[in-house]
Queue: 4 jobs
Job 1
Amino acid sequence: MIAPNQLSDPTVRAFVAAVNAGDPNAFRAVLTEGATMSDDGSDRDVAQWAEKEIFASDGHMDIETESDGGRALVVNYRNDTWGEMRTKWRFTVTGDGRISRFETGQA
């Protein structure tokens, strides 16, 4: 496992820290206005998805591997709704260090 504070990309590191801390304000701060996301190939509303899949269900990311300069992760993700699952995450980071899109799904 990779400790979140050891992730290569500082923006992705902030995203993971916000998820693991259950901090919706820090989560929103790392995203651009109008950020988009998909889950298992289907686009979702970021705010609704995050509330359900992360914050209301105690979501947590344990990082297995990173690639693409730290912008692609394989994660053991767990929450109170679905339990634990191996997932992949890919992040699009803007020049000002915020996430404009992330994609997740089963690995």
Job 2
Amino acid sequence: MSNPIAATLAYFSVGILLLIVCLACFEWVTRYNCWTEIRKGNVAVALATGGKIVGICNVFRYAIQAQSAIYESIGWAVLGFVLLLAGYFLFEFLTPVLRVDDEIAKDNRAVGLISFLVSISLSFIIGSSITYG
């Protein structure tokens, strides 16, 4: 897009839509209801959800930066989200001494913080590989 205002509005609109879809996907795979738990004051869920939001948006940022066409950016963003989702399952799998979702649902803030940091950290690795590709 040659008009920067139109491009900004397009990327913003698509980014918000993709964020909502991605959060719905995360909501579907967790054992707890994020927004119900946040409404109850569960800080661990808020941390984990916040990390997912920042992670998703960071991957989208790299996808927008790396590509000129909005469709290519969407493709990279979706691939990045799938990798973030895979990282989420890997995090659950690699911690056999505890069930991450269950601990977060119980407001274990230490696990919520680690989940927050894992999401953000993975988003930088995924995003850098998008920029490189």
Job 3
Amino acid sequence: MTPPQRQRRFPRAVPPPRPAGPAGGKRGGGNPERLYVVAGPDGERADIDLVTLIVAGSPDPPPSATPEQAALLRLCAAPLSAAELSAYLNLPFSAVTVLLTEMLAAELVQARFPIVRKALPDRSLLEAVMHGLQRL
């Protein structure tokens, strides 16, 4: 037995469909041609990690900057990671790395790469931790 279906007293009108913008209502997400225009035809990339900090030399974009580059420069007034920039710009990380590569070559931004620690920790530190744990 199926339960009775409830009906609304005042049925809502179905909202009209929204017209799709250049990227289907999202910046950079739905249209592959848009990503090609943002990233450029060559698609070369610098060795940028998700945690690489990006800092703008000047927050004022040059007149030749694309809208994405101008937004990136405004965001990078304070250091931000490449992953944060990708999220704020609503662009895939691969497109952001291509943008950052172009901007690094033009010296509009600086990249601060993460510090890589030595592969093996100091033996004396490990022994001190081991002796401290044995005393517990």
Job 4
Amino acid sequence: MAIYVDTRDGVLHQITGPVAPDYANLRQGLCSSRAERDQIRHLLHAFDEDRLRWIGRNQPHGAERPAWWTGKLAVIGGMVSDTPDKQLPWARLLLSMIQQSNEREGSPRP
């Protein structure tokens, strides 16, 4: 199980489960990495083609891929709630990345 609480204000944002054993470590590392958040911020203003190239360069292959996507989506989801003045652009990025994760994993669209 994973529980996401904003350490700045103590607000509970999400409870999920079951999760892979490495999920908590991956998410903690992503959320605490300024470079990672900066990369994600870059995606907010990137063209679709640039986002696709970034995904192609950065996503791992094999067993690490689901945890990578979960971590990226968690960081973007956190930005939706952390930036009230830019919620719509962050929500659009989140939806775009969810779509890409589904397409790259061969999952049918909802």
